[in-house]
Amino acid sequence: MVAAVHGYLNIVQLLLSRGADPNQRPTNGVPPLVVASEKGQVELARLLLENGARANSDLDIPPLHAATYHGFVELTSLLLEHGSDVNQADNRGTSPLCIASTNGDVTIARLLLEHGARVNQANGVDASPLLAASSNGHIDVARLLLEHGADVNQDSNFGASPQYTARQKDVKIGSSPLFIACQNGNDSVVRLLISHGADVNQTTNHGASSLFIASLNGHLSIARFLLANGADVNLATTRGIPPLAVASFHGHDELVRLLIAHGANSFFLDGLTLLDFEHEPISGVLANQLPLLDKVILESSYTDDDIVVREERRTTRKCPRCTRRRPPLD
């Protein structure tokens, strides 16, 4: 129905009165209701629905997902009133609530929850709405989800590469909302999650804790808050890498001091301590551990872009004890 694509309401009304099928798909395969939903055309959508347009579809992007994605509150409400499935997943396994949470749209998220949206329904990589909100720093949406019973410790495959997900099949990488918030440096979200009972010592399947990821990324205030709320300063990954090692490796001096002040054990490299290397920068000491560190970090839900950043940092690193540049570690 070409008239619907251009929003010609009167022409659409005339065509419908003469028996036009409101669900007919043109050559591009997108029915009129989806077009109206993508463009926020409320009256056109209402006209189509009142004349038999299906509120649910098997399209890659159903009408409700389109309206939710673009933030059309009135249109979202209209579709829900006409029976749109609030928990239907799109072609990527994503629910409307997960979309609203990713976008930080509190109004639509609340509307969906009021119509029965499942608060813990995960998407195609097992990321829950709470994890999506936490990842993007949307504290108001995160708070709303927690008020509606979101599982603060629900883990996921979020952050894993497609190759990893394909290899592991049904095995989750174990990224929690708190882990992702710590990785991204979202202080306020971290505080919110912990205040609602997030496990500060929950780890990924490879043993990376929230303190580990905060230490790796140099998020000092988050690390301090985690430690104040019971984070295990010596909790190492499954390959034996503790937070102190990655903080030292990346030259996060203040974080190293913080971890040591909270009892971090420097006895972590083949029976040697940091004092054994007092005349050598710790980055040089850890150079021998690079293959192991790379493997652990890669398996701890890092994306390809994150690894590229790490590789750039490795080519020329600043010596912690002076201002000169160290040569590549290759």
TrEMBL record:
PROSITE patterns on file: ANK_REP_REGION, ANK_REPEAT
Annotated InterPro entries: Ankyrin_rpt (IPR002110), Ankyrin_rpt-contain_sf (IPR036770)
Record bears the keyword Repeat: yes
SMART domains linked: ANK
Keywords tagged on the record: ANK repeat, Repeat
The ANK repeat ranges on this chain: 1-27, 28-60, 59-91, 92-124, 125-157, 173-205, 206-238, 239-271
Protein name, entry field: Ankyrin repeat protein
